[in-house]
Design brief:
It contains 7 helices and 15 strands. By secondary structure, it is α+β, with helices and mostly antiparallel strands.
């Protein structure tokens, strides 16, 4: 029998019983929030992708989550500074439905990206990172342009290595370093243009979750169907899902596309 969200919540409670953590289930979002007791500091985990990961990896998925939560809750109590940490600031891609404010009501810094995605900004803390909000930025007298420029420079400095696979005459490229910024590499326009030089058909991308970036050289209608299937599969498995819609890349811009019954529709 497939693991349900309620059963997973109980499994997490048993696994994390040694910690002073409270785990609450949000039925509407199908997610759990893990936070320190007597505190509003915590993180939210979307359950469907985590359940898929657990079914594939078993206890190792729980261990990874435990390490991530422990690290994240630890650094939340530490005072963080942007000054002197410029090299650790990166953009992160999130869905257009991602919250615009922190749980405490602080407005997060973000830029619009596509109809499906936004660009937020984060300070890398090692095994976790902290999203940057307006109050934090103001407290250090940083203008938003400075934050954007630093983050953009840093993401362009990250290595990009593609693995490719050709299916039915279409070539698909995958990048996944699992450093938290795989999807963010879609902001590296020079890297996209470099790959574009090798494309023979239509150039498409997908950012189903934060830990993968997918590119595609679509040369026939079957290619769109395959891209849609790949994107949905990755979207369902990601720890931080972004969007199940692929994008066409034209004139250095991304346009979301709907792929239905072997037809592409913008």
């Amino acid at each position: 029998m497939r693991m349900t969200s309620i059963k997973m919540k109980k499994l997490l409670e048993e696994r994390f019983s040694q910690y002073s953590w409270e785990i609450t289930y949000d039925k509407d979002k199908d997610s759990v929030r893990i936070e320190k007791k007597d505190s509003n500091q915590g993180i939210e985990i979307e359950l469907p992708p985590f359940i898929s990961k657990w079914e594939e990896k078993g206890d190792s998925a729980l261990t990874e989550l435990e390490d991530f939560v422990r690290e994240a809750l630890t650094v939340m109590n530490e005072e963080q500074m942007l000054q002197g940490r410029e090299k650790d600031i990166y953009p992160v891609i999130r869905s257009a439905s991602f919250p615009k404010e922190t749980k405490s009501g602080q407005r997060l810094i973000f830029d619009e990206h596509t109809a499906e995605t936004r660009i937020y900004y984060a300070l890398d803390l090692g095994k976790s990172y902290r999203l940057i909000d307006e109050a934090w930025l103001q407290s250090e007298n940083w203008p938003k342009n400075q934050l954007r420029e630093v983050a953009t420079f840093n993401v362009r400095s990250l290595p990009v290595s593609w693995k490719s696979e050709t299916v039915a005459g279409n070539t698909f490229y995958f990048h996944s370093k699992n450093d938290g910024y795989d999807a963010s590499r879609i902001l590296n326009i020079s890297e996209l243009e470099k790959l574009k030089a090798e494309i023979k058909g239509e150039f498409a991308f997908a950012i189903p979750h934060q830990d993968v970036l997918i590119a595609a050289d679509i040369q026939n209608e079957t290619g769109y169907d395959i891209l849609a299937q790949i994107t949905m599969k990755f979207f369902a498995e990601g720890r931080v899902p972004v969007t199940a819609l692929p994008f066409l890349y034209e004139d250095q811009k991304l346009e979301p596309i709907f792929i239905l019954a072997q037809n592409k529709k913008k």
